[in-house]
Amino acid sequence: MIASLRAFLNRIAGGRPEEHDITALGADLDRWSTTLAEAAVEETEQVYGRRPDLLGRGQATWPAVRFTHLDDNSLEGVVTFDRYFLGRHGVAHGGAIAFLFDEIAGRLAHLGGRPMARTGYLRIDFRAIAPIEVELRISGRYLREEGRKRILRLELAHGDTLCAEAEVLMVTLKPGQR
Ligand SMILES: CCCCCCCCCCCCCCCC(=O)SCCNC(=O)CCNC(=O)[C@H](O)C(C)(C)COP(=O)(O)OP(=O)(O)OC[C@H]1O[C@@H](n2cnc3c(N)ncnc32)[C@H](O)[C@@H]1OP(=O)(O)O
Hints:
- Its main location: membrane.
- GO terms for molecular function: thiolester hydrolase activity.
- The chain is of the alpha+beta class.
- It has helices at 2-14, 19-37, 94-109; strands at 64-70, 74-80, 86-88, 91-92, 117-126, 135-146, 149-158, 161-172.
């Protein structure tokens, strides 16, 4: 279903459907919204975004990352920004890159069984355009750990070109902290 939703969003983003198809589609979506409202659950019970075995943790609105390497202190992977993530002129939206980086930082912060942490800052430099619909490389590693602070470095590259880099602070939550 998530793969279908991904494909659907890309068709919506990249299409210009006829008026009657837009109307019919709206009606179909409304019908599904009504059906899904009956299946509503609390956050802890939801499936969306809680399937680490699926691309993008089972989130259709997250760039599909495939990890190629994970150890306790670093990770590498490949990602393709689909049409849905277009900013303008064939280039991925900067917010989509921030979304990707925050998620990757979350993943990196929890490697090696480390406890829950939350993003304190995410400082991004956009160095070159990140094209959509081509495979890009993502990498992340620990720079250092200081008490509750985990300082991480992330990079997004297209071939030899560095597209974006970020320094991220993840702070371990205190007991009982939400
Ligand atoms: C079942 C599912 C399977 C899934 C499979 C696993 C994959 C799992 C992937 C998850 C992926 C999700 C990843 C999303 C990650 C978010 O997106 S989290 C959401 C965005 N972030 C937030 O909402 C954070 C909001 N801010 C806060 O909650 C609090 O400010 C923080 C960050 C927790 C820190 O507050 P605090 O705990 O009171 O800590 P505090 O004492 O203020 O600071 C601790 C230290 O950090 C420093 N610090 C804190 N903030 C800053 C800052 N902005 N700048 C500089 N220094 C700072 C302090 O100066 C202090 O330093 P020291 O004095 O110790 O040297």
